[in-house]
Amino acid sequence: MNCTKCKTKAVIDLPRHNAAFCKGCFTGFVHDQVARAIKSEWMFGKEERILVAVSGGKDSLALWNILLKLGYRADGLYVDLGIGVYSEQSHAKVTKFAEAVATSHGATLHLHTVEQEAGAGIKELAQLIHRPTCSTCGTIKRYQFNRVAIEQNYDVMATGHNLDDEAARLLGNVLHWQEEYLDKQGPSLPASVAGFAKKVKPLYRLSERELAAYAVLNRIDYIVEECPMAKGSKMLQYKEVLNRLETESPGTKQTFYWGFLDKQRKKQPTAITMTEKDRAVLHPCASCSQPTTAEVCSYCKMMAKAKTVVPR
Length: 312
Known about the structure:
Layout: E1 12-14, E2 19-21, H1 23-40, E3 49-54, H2 58-69, E4 73-80, H3 84-102, E5 109-113, H4 114-118, H5 122-129, H6 133-151, E6 156-158, H7 163-175, H8 179-182, E7 188-189, E8 198-200, H9 208-217, H10 234-248, H11 252-265, H12 274-281, E9 283-284, E10 291-292, H13 298-309
Parallel strand pairs: 3-4, 3-6, 4-5, 6-8
Antiparallel strand pairs: 1-2, 7-8, 9-10
Helix pairs in contact: 1-9, 2-3, 2-9, 5-6, 7-10, 7-11
Protein backbone atom coordinates (compact mmCIF):
# COMPACT_ATOMS: atom_id res chain seq x y z
CA MET A 1 0.00 0.00 0.00
CA ASN A 2 1.52 3.29 -1.16
CA CYS A 3 0.85 6.87 -0.11
CA THR A 4 -1.87 8.45 -2.25
CA LYS A 5 0.04 11.74 -2.36
CA CYS A 6 3.77 10.94 -2.69
CA LYS A 7 3.64 7.21 -3.65
CA THR A 8 6.09 6.10 -0.93
CA LYS A 9 5.10 3.37 1.53
CA ALA A 10 1.95 4.28 3.46
CA VAL A 11 1.58 3.85 7.22
CA ILE A 12 -2.19 4.36 7.45
CA ASP A 13 -5.22 3.89 5.22
CA LEU A 14 -8.32 6.08 5.45
CA PRO A 15 -11.26 4.17 3.92
CA ARG A 16 -13.72 7.08 4.23
CA HIS A 17 -11.39 9.18 2.07
CA ASN A 18 -10.37 6.27 -0.17
CA ALA A 19 -6.76 7.23 0.56
CA ALA A 20 -3.57 6.13 2.31
CA PHE A 21 -0.67 8.23 3.59
CA CYS A 22 2.95 8.02 4.70
CA LYS A 23 3.85 9.67 8.02
CA GLY A 24 4.72 13.07 6.56
CA CYS A 25 1.72 13.31 4.25
CA PHE A 26 -0.62 12.07 6.98
CA THR A 27 0.62 14.74 9.39
CA GLY A 28 0.07 17.32 6.67
CA PHE A 29 -3.42 15.90 6.03
CA VAL A 30 -4.36 16.23 9.74
CA HIS A 31 -3.03 19.77 9.95
CA ASP A 32 -4.92 20.69 6.79
CA GLN A 33 -8.19 19.27 8.16
CA VAL A 34 -7.85 21.38 11.31
CA ALA A 35 -6.92 24.48 9.30
CA ARG A 36 -9.98 23.95 7.09
CA ALA A 37 -12.22 23.53 10.13
CA ILE A 38 -10.92 26.77 11.66
CA LYS A 39 -11.37 28.73 8.43
CA SER A 40 -14.76 27.33 7.39
CA GLU A 41 -16.33 27.89 10.81
CA TRP A 42 -14.66 31.26 11.49
CA MET A 43 -13.24 29.88 14.76
CA PHE A 44 -10.31 32.25 15.42
CA GLY A 45 -7.39 34.07 13.88
CA LYS A 46 -3.63 34.04 14.45
CA GLU A 47 -3.81 37.14 16.62
CA GLU A 48 -6.37 35.70 19.06
CA ARG A 49 -5.58 33.94 22.36
CA ILE A 50 -6.86 30.37 22.59
CA LEU A 51 -7.39 28.27 25.72
CA VAL A 52 -7.24 24.52 25.01
CA ALA A 53 -9.00 22.20 27.45
CA VAL A 54 -6.52 19.33 27.93
CA SER A 55 -7.20 16.03 29.68
CA GLY A 56 -4.10 13.95 28.99
CA GLY A 57 -5.89 12.02 26.25
CA LYS A 58 -4.88 11.82 22.58
CA ASP A 59 -7.45 14.29 21.25
CA SER A 60 -6.79 17.28 23.48
CA LEU A 61 -3.00 16.88 23.41
CA ALA A 62 -3.06 16.42 19.64
CA LEU A 63 -5.19 19.56 19.31
CA TRP A 64 -2.80 21.61 21.43
CA ASN A 65 0.14 20.29 19.41
CA ILE A 66 -1.53 21.02 16.07
CA LEU A 67 -2.52 24.58 17.01
CA LEU A 68 1.03 25.34 18.16
CA LYS A 69 2.48 23.82 14.97
CA LEU A 70 0.09 25.94 12.90
CA GLY A 71 1.34 29.07 14.66
CA TYR A 72 -1.59 29.86 16.93
CA ARG A 73 -1.32 31.40 20.41
CA ALA A 74 -2.65 28.45 22.39
CA ASP A 75 -2.36 27.81 26.13
CA GLY A 76 -3.71 24.78 27.98
CA LEU A 77 -5.94 24.18 31.01
CA TYR A 78 -5.99 20.90 32.92
CA VAL A 79 -8.66 20.21 35.55
CA ASP A 80 -7.56 17.55 38.05
CA LEU A 81 -10.75 15.74 39.06
CA GLY A 82 -9.16 13.58 41.74
CA ILE A 83 -9.94 10.18 40.17
CA GLY A 84 -7.14 8.30 41.94
CA VAL A 85 -4.42 6.78 39.75
CA TYR A 86 -6.21 7.81 36.56
CA SER A 87 -5.97 11.52 37.41
CA GLU A 88 -2.38 11.12 38.56
CA GLN A 89 -1.43 9.56 35.23
CA SER A 90 -3.37 12.02 33.08
CA HIS A 91 -1.91 14.94 35.03
CA ALA A 92 1.57 13.56 34.42
CA LYS A 93 0.92 13.22 30.65
CA VAL A 94 -0.27 16.82 30.39
CA THR A 95 2.68 18.15 32.40
CA LYS A 96 5.14 16.14 30.33
CA PHE A 97 3.67 17.49 27.08
CA ALA A 98 3.70 21.05 28.39
CA GLU A 99 7.35 20.78 29.39
CA ALA A 100 8.45 19.05 26.17
CA VAL A 101 6.39 20.88 23.55
CA ALA A 102 4.24 23.75 24.77
CA THR A 103 6.90 25.77 26.59
CA SER A 104 9.12 25.78 23.50
CA HIS A 105 6.30 27.66 21.74
CA GLY A 106 5.86 30.10 24.64
CA ALA A 107 2.64 28.41 25.75
CA THR A 108 1.37 28.22 29.34
CA LEU A 109 -0.36 25.38 31.21
CA HIS A 110 -3.03 26.37 33.73
CA LEU A 111 -3.99 23.88 36.45
CA HIS A 112 -7.11 23.56 38.59
CA THR A 113 -7.46 20.89 41.29
CA VAL A 114 -11.01 20.01 42.34
CA GLU A 115 -9.98 18.55 45.71
CA GLN A 116 -8.21 21.76 46.72
CA GLU A 117 -11.41 23.75 46.22
CA ALA A 118 -14.08 21.26 47.27
CA GLY A 119 -12.16 19.08 49.72
CA ALA A 120 -13.26 15.99 47.81
CA GLY A 121 -12.77 14.25 44.46
CA ILE A 122 -15.35 13.90 41.71
CA LYS A 123 -16.75 10.58 42.96
CA GLU A 124 -17.43 11.95 46.45
CA LEU A 125 -18.99 15.12 45.02
CA ALA A 126 -21.31 13.09 42.79
CA GLN A 127 -22.50 11.05 45.78
CA LEU A 128 -22.95 14.21 47.81
CA ILE A 129 -25.30 15.85 45.31
CA HIS A 130 -26.92 12.57 44.18
CA ARG A 131 -26.00 12.92 40.51
CA PRO A 132 -24.16 10.60 38.07
CA THR A 133 -20.39 10.99 38.14
CA CYS A 134 -20.17 11.93 34.45
CA SER A 135 -22.83 14.64 34.91
CA THR A 136 -20.96 16.07 37.90
CA CYS A 137 -17.70 15.94 35.97
CA GLY A 138 -19.27 17.81 33.05
CA THR A 139 -20.59 20.54 35.34
CA ILE A 140 -17.16 21.08 36.90
CA LYS A 141 -15.19 21.07 33.67
CA ARG A 142 -17.56 23.36 31.78
CA TYR A 143 -17.53 25.81 34.68
CA GLN A 144 -13.75 25.85 35.15
CA PHE A 145 -12.95 26.03 31.43
CA ASN A 146 -15.29 28.98 31.02
CA ARG A 147 -14.08 30.66 34.23
CA VAL A 148 -10.41 30.58 33.25
CA ALA A 149 -11.16 31.68 29.69
CA ILE A 150 -13.09 34.72 30.96
CA GLU A 151 -10.81 35.63 33.88
CA GLN A 152 -7.62 35.29 31.82
CA ASN A 153 -9.08 37.20 28.85
CA TYR A 154 -8.87 34.43 26.25
CA ASP A 155 -10.72 35.07 23.01
CA VAL A 156 -11.86 31.49 22.56
CA MET A 157 -11.92 28.13 24.31
CA ALA A 158 -11.09 25.03 22.24
CA THR A 159 -11.94 21.42 23.09
CA GLY A 160 -10.71 18.17 21.57
CA HIS A 161 -14.07 16.77 20.48
CA ASN A 162 -13.58 14.72 17.31
CA LEU A 163 -15.90 13.40 14.60
CA ASP A 164 -16.71 10.26 16.62
CA ASP A 165 -17.64 12.33 19.67
CA GLU A 166 -19.92 14.64 17.71
CA ALA A 167 -21.60 11.87 15.72
CA ALA A 168 -22.27 9.89 18.92
CA ARG A 169 -23.63 12.96 20.69
CA LEU A 170 -25.83 13.74 17.69
CA LEU A 171 -27.18 10.17 17.67
CA GLY A 172 -28.09 10.43 21.35
CA ASN A 173 -29.77 13.81 20.90
CA VAL A 174 -31.77 12.60 17.89
CA LEU A 175 -32.83 9.38 19.61
CA HIS A 176 -34.29 11.43 22.46
CA TRP A 177 -35.26 14.44 20.28
CA GLN A 178 -33.45 16.85 22.56
CA GLU A 179 -33.92 19.87 20.33
CA GLU A 180 -32.40 22.31 22.83
CA TYR A 181 -29.13 20.35 22.62
CA LEU A 182 -29.29 19.98 18.84
CA ASP A 183 -29.12 23.77 18.54
CA LYS A 184 -25.72 23.68 20.26
CA GLN A 185 -24.18 20.80 18.30
CA GLY A 186 -22.19 23.03 15.98
CA PRO A 187 -18.37 23.12 16.01
CA SER A 188 -18.34 26.86 16.77
CA LEU A 189 -20.56 28.38 19.47
CA PRO A 190 -20.55 32.16 19.97
CA ALA A 191 -20.21 33.94 23.29
CA SER A 192 -23.98 34.38 23.34
CA VAL A 193 -24.14 36.37 26.60
CA ALA A 194 -21.70 38.26 28.82
CA GLY A 195 -19.79 35.79 30.97
CA PHE A 196 -19.64 33.05 28.33
CA ALA A 197 -16.50 32.37 26.28
CA LYS A 198 -16.70 31.46 22.61
CA LYS A 199 -16.32 27.66 22.27
CA VAL A 200 -14.91 25.77 19.28
CA LYS A 201 -14.13 22.20 18.23
CA PRO A 202 -11.34 22.28 15.62
CA LEU A 203 -11.09 18.47 15.40
CA TYR A 204 -14.62 17.81 14.18
CA ARG A 205 -13.37 16.81 10.72
CA LEU A 206 -11.08 14.07 12.12
CA SER A 207 -11.96 10.64 13.49
CA GLU A 208 -10.78 9.09 16.74
CA ARG A 209 -8.66 6.57 14.82
CA GLU A 210 -7.00 9.31 12.79
CA LEU A 211 -6.13 11.29 15.92
CA ALA A 212 -4.74 8.22 17.66
CA ALA A 213 -2.51 7.59 14.64
CA TYR A 214 -1.42 11.24 14.61
CA ALA A 215 -0.48 11.07 18.29
CA VAL A 216 1.52 7.86 17.86
CA LEU A 217 3.31 8.99 14.71
CA ASN A 218 4.20 12.35 16.28
CA ARG A 219 5.29 10.77 19.57
CA ILE A 220 2.68 12.43 21.74
CA ASP A 221 2.56 10.48 24.98
CA TYR A 222 -1.08 10.23 26.08
CA ILE A 223 -3.17 8.22 28.52
CA VAL A 224 -4.71 5.32 26.61
CA GLU A 225 -7.20 4.06 29.19
CA GLU A 226 -10.78 5.33 29.27
CA CYS A 227 -11.83 7.16 32.42
CA PRO A 228 -12.93 4.49 34.93
CA MET A 229 -15.99 6.60 35.75
CA ALA A 230 -17.22 6.31 32.14
CA LYS A 231 -18.00 2.60 32.33
CA GLY A 232 -21.52 1.97 31.03
CA SER A 233 -21.76 5.45 29.48
CA LYS A 234 -24.44 5.91 26.83
CA MET A 235 -21.93 7.81 24.70
CA LEU A 236 -19.68 4.73 24.55
CA GLN A 237 -22.68 2.65 23.46
CA TYR A 238 -23.54 5.13 20.71
CA LYS A 239 -19.91 5.10 19.55
CA GLU A 240 -19.94 1.30 19.38
CA VAL A 241 -23.06 1.33 17.18
CA LEU A 242 -21.56 3.95 14.86
CA ASN A 243 -18.27 2.05 14.66
CA ARG A 244 -20.12 -1.03 13.41
CA LEU A 245 -21.88 1.06 10.77
CA GLU A 246 -18.58 2.71 9.80
CA THR A 247 -16.93 -0.69 9.31
CA GLU A 248 -19.67 -1.77 6.92
CA SER A 249 -19.98 1.61 5.21
CA PRO A 250 -16.92 3.89 5.53
CA GLY A 251 -17.90 7.54 5.81
CA THR A 252 -21.12 6.94 7.77
CA LYS A 253 -20.09 9.16 10.70
CA GLN A 254 -18.99 11.95 8.39
CA THR A 255 -22.19 11.79 6.34
CA PHE A 256 -24.33 11.77 9.49
CA TYR A 257 -22.69 14.68 11.31
CA TRP A 258 -21.71 16.83 8.34
CA GLY A 259 -25.19 16.35 6.88
CA PHE A 260 -26.66 17.65 10.13
CA LEU A 261 -24.37 20.71 10.04
CA ASP A 262 -25.42 21.42 6.46
CA LYS A 263 -29.10 21.31 7.50
CA GLN A 264 -28.37 23.67 10.39
CA ARG A 265 -26.71 26.19 8.06
CA LYS A 266 -29.74 26.17 5.77
CA LYS A 267 -32.25 26.93 8.51
CA GLN A 268 -34.76 29.63 7.78
CA PRO A 269 -33.40 33.08 8.75
CA THR A 270 -36.63 33.70 10.70
CA ALA A 271 -35.81 30.89 13.15
CA ILE A 272 -34.89 31.96 16.68
CA THR A 273 -31.12 31.78 17.07
CA MET A 274 -29.23 30.12 19.92
CA THR A 275 -27.97 33.55 21.02
CA GLU A 276 -31.51 34.92 21.20
CA LYS A 277 -32.65 31.91 23.22
CA ASP A 278 -29.74 32.25 25.65
CA ARG A 279 -30.33 35.95 26.17
CA ALA A 280 -33.97 35.27 26.94
CA VAL A 281 -33.33 32.75 29.74
CA LEU A 282 -29.82 33.35 31.12
CA HIS A 283 -28.72 35.82 33.77
CA PRO A 284 -25.70 36.15 36.10
CA CYS A 285 -25.40 33.69 39.00
CA ALA A 286 -25.94 35.51 42.32
CA SER A 287 -22.77 33.90 43.67
CA CYS A 288 -20.20 33.83 40.85
CA SER A 289 -21.82 35.87 38.02
CA GLN A 290 -21.48 33.11 35.41
CA PRO A 291 -24.61 32.77 33.23
CA THR A 292 -27.31 30.45 34.58
CA THR A 293 -31.06 29.86 34.36
CA ALA A 294 -31.43 29.71 38.16
CA GLU A 295 -30.67 32.25 40.87
CA VAL A 296 -27.53 30.31 41.79
CA CYS A 297 -25.76 28.11 39.21
CA SER A 298 -25.42 24.34 39.72
CA TYR A 299 -21.66 24.62 40.26
CA CYS A 300 -21.98 27.12 43.11
CA LYS A 301 -24.75 25.03 44.70
CA MET A 302 -22.49 21.98 44.56
CA MET A 303 -19.50 23.80 46.07
CA ALA A 304 -21.66 25.30 48.82
CA LYS A 305 -22.96 21.87 49.74
CA ALA A 306 -19.46 20.39 49.70
CA LYS A 307 -18.19 23.06 52.08
CA THR A 308 -20.96 22.31 54.61
CA VAL A 309 -20.54 18.52 54.50
CA VAL A 310 -16.92 17.67 53.63
CA PRO A 311 -14.65 17.92 56.71
CA ARG A 312 -11.75 20.37 56.39
